[in-house]
């Protein structure tokens, strides 16, 4: 349906695109998040790895996938830093010296 008002047309197009994208990205059936999995940084990292694999395998707009993957990778980098810090702190507490 064409609109004479350009702003109303732009709003209609934005909504139409949002609905189209939402229909393409569907949650995977059967995958439930166990709160115990994300109590540690390593558990969070494992969950992020599985989630990234699911996103890569979906049939969705490449730009949406790229944005989502980039965001999750930034979270993953923080988790990796925390895992490394946990290892270093536990090594210091035990009196061990870690080699990089």
What characteristics describe this protein?
100 residues, mainly alpha, 3 helices
Question: What does this 3D model show about the protein?
Answer:
With 100 residues, the chain is mainly alpha-helical. The protein has one domain. It contains three helices and no strands. The model has no long low-confidence stretch (mean pLDDT 80).
Write the layout of secondary structure elements.
Layout lengths: L5 H19 L16 H16 L5 H33 L6
Helix pairs in contact: 2-3
Shape: elongated
- The number of domains is 1
Q: What is the assembly state of the chains in this entry?
A: single chain
Low-confidence stretches: none
Radius of gyration: 21 Å
Series of secondary-structure elements, N-terminal to C-terminal: HHH
Summarize the biggest pleated sheet: none
Quote the beta fraction.
Answer: under 5%
Tell me the distance between the termini.
Answer: 63 Å
What is the overall pLDDT average?
80
Number of helices: 3
């Amino acid at each position: 349906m064409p609109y004479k008002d350009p702003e109303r047309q732009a709003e209609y197009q934005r909504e139409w695109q949002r609905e189209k994208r939402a229909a393409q990205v569907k949650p995977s059936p059967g995958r439930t998040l166990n709160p115990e999995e994300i109590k540690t940084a390593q558990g969070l990292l494992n969950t992020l790895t599985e989630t990234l694999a699911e996103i890569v395998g979906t049939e969705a707009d490449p730009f949406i996938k790229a944005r989502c993957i980039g965001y999750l990778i930034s979270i993953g980098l923080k988790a990796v830093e925390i895992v490394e810090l946990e290892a270093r702190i536990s090594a210091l507490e035990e009196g061990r010296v870690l080699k990089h």
